[in-house]
Write a structure and sequence with these properties.
The chain is mostly beta strands and 271 residues long. The chain is built from 1 helix and 27 strands. The longest helix is centred in the first third of the chain and has 4 residues.
Length: 271
């Protein structure tokens, strides 16, 4: 019956397409018009009369609409969740056309029915397959490029005080220098110096992934003055983090700790 587009060939269902081709289960099509070349279009592999073919097996990503195998299209795939095969939207974290695949590392899809996954934005990471929502980098970490699957640590002498940072901020008033600046973490230990005197009562260690500017300070053997970290001179004690003291046998005015005087002849004159 060319008018209806359907026919019956012995026990099997065949189909006549718009161009007049009879489609059989042997991957060949015999044209009704002898002037046209034989072309394979579809293959229903011999479906008994009255039964719907397994379209998804024959043409992946398609379902039977009662007359033909129809592709699901962009952002959809065949689902049997309700029993009968139907087209459903790709869930968040997956995308595709006629089938849904998990988003690759560094990519995500937040909405159902996505045809393509998007690149993870700067300041965020998409660490696993099938990510539905980018995760902002935590304090002390950053991601400077799109499609990142991890966040990098801020190195010493830099910090990130905002969640979702795309870069770390250098210590120092004008960018500073990693040669004289660093970022510190306080340890509650005793630091012993000359003649067994305990000074200062705390100790600091350089750390990475600092979360705020308050962690910035001068490196060991440097002191802070006028916005810069300068090398300590003879008689100064500079354990780090802008702490300055005076070694035994030397004296300095607390208001000018970099102006150090050495005590001669009578050391008792120095505190």
């Amino acid at each position: 019956n060319p008018a209806s587009g359907n026919c019956r060939f012995f026990y099997w269902v065949c189909h006549i397409d718009a161009d007049g081709y009879i489609l059989f289960d042997n991957n060949t099509a015999n044209p009704l018009d002898n002037e046209r070349e034989s072309t394979w279009v579809k293959d229903f592999h011999g479906v008994p009369t009255g039964e719907a073919p397994d379209c998804n097996a024959l043409l992946p990503g398609s379902h039977w609409d009662g007359a033909d195998c129809v592709l699901c299209g962009a952002g959809k795939e065949v689902s049997r969740a309700t029993g009968e095969p139907i087209c459903e939207q790709c869930p968040p974290g997956r995308s595709g056309t006629n089938r849904c695949d998990a988003c690759f590392l560094g990519h995500f899809s937040a909405d159902a029915g996505s045809a393509e996954c998007s690149e993870c934005p700067v300041g965020h990471k998409c660490a696993g397959l099938g990510t539905s929502n980018p995760v902002p980098c935590p304090l002390g970490f950053f991601a400077s490029a799109n499609a990142s699957d991890s966040c990098g640590q801020c190195s010493a002498a830099t910090y990130a005080d905002t969640v979702g940072s795309s870069q770390c901020t250098p210590c120092g008033p004008s960018g500073g220098s990693s040669e004289t600046w660093t970022t510190w973490h306080e340890l509650l230990v005793q630091r012993t110096v000359d003649e067994g005197a305990a000074w200062p009562a705390q100790q600091y260690v350089p750390v990475a992934s600092a979360t705020n500017k308050s962690a910035c300070g001068c490196k060991t053997d440097h002191y802070f003055k006028d916005g810069h970290c300068l090398p300590c001179t003879k008689g100064m004690l500079c354990p780090g983090n802008n702490i300055v003291g005076t070694a035994g046998g030397y004296w300095a005015n607390p208001l000018a700790p970099d102006s150090v005087w050495e005590c001669f002849k009578n050391p008792s004159r120095c505190p």
